[in-house]
Structure formats: C-alpha cells, structure tokens
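Annotated sample (chain length 165).
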Amino acid sequence: MAGLICSACLVVALPLMANAPAAAESGSADMGSSGSAGSSDIYLPVSTPAGLQALAAASTQLGKPYKWGGTGPNSWDCSGLTQWAFSTAGVHLPRTSQQQSKVGHAIPAWALAPGDIIIFWHDASHVGIYAGFGQVLNAYGPNGVPVGFNPLDRMPPVKTIRRLG
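Output written by the structure step:
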C-alpha cells in the first residue's frame, strides 16, 4: 500500500483494496493498470502538506480587511485568499469559490483535516480553509471585516469539502 507521508508522518490517502478478500478467494481478479483489484481511495482525517502550507500562509493575512473582489495583498475576498494561500504551496486554484468547489478530492465531513477547503452555501458562494479545532480561517464580509477565524458550527451550510495537494 502506497501512501503519501509528510514530514510530520501524517498519512494522507491510502488506496485500500475494498474487494481484496473476494478477489483472493476467487483466485482471479482484473488487476487493471493500477495493479490492485477493486481499489478505492479512503481519505483519513489528516492534512496534506500543501493544505498545511496554505493554512500557514493564510494565517499571515489575519486582520486584513474583507473586500468583495479582493485578491490581496491589502484586502481579500474569500476565494482570493484561498487562491493566494494555495499558490504559495504550488497549488493553482481557479478564482471563484464556485470553481474551487470542483477541484481536488471531495472529502466526507468525518475526514475533515486542517488545510482542507470548505465550500459553503448551496450556490458555493463562500470558501474558507479549515484550521482545526472546529475553526475556519476565512475572509468573510461585509466589506471591512477582518480576515479571521469563525467556528465551523456557526458557518453557513456546507456544500462540499475539498482536499488539495
């Protein structure tokens, strides 16, 4: 089993052979190009190195004001902040939260880890970076409100969680 391990020894995603016992019992399996029978990715609640780097970069912007359409360096909107933060980790995101809701890997809520992005509202109109301990680091309006942390349980409804890197 190959897994990505960062410098802090965190396993990111392990491809597990969900159907391995059945394939082993039958004596034959279509191994495909990946060399595993019935494999699927299982996401664990652990951060990617890129997600942690983006979270660290975004945290340097705490206190700067929210401004709709802001792409820094003096003010930010939600997607401008996530786009910039992930670019520091070598991950190039599209500009809007709606576009960002479609990149990376969809993660179930139980596997949420620091550095994952969370897209909010049914129309995907807000995005933030999960910071751990139930907090979301985000640029959240109205204009002038400082970039900061908000409790996840007080945020708008979650549309999707995405893991990048």
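Annotation: The first strand starts at residue 13 and ends at 17.
Annotation: The chain has a mean pLDDT of 83.
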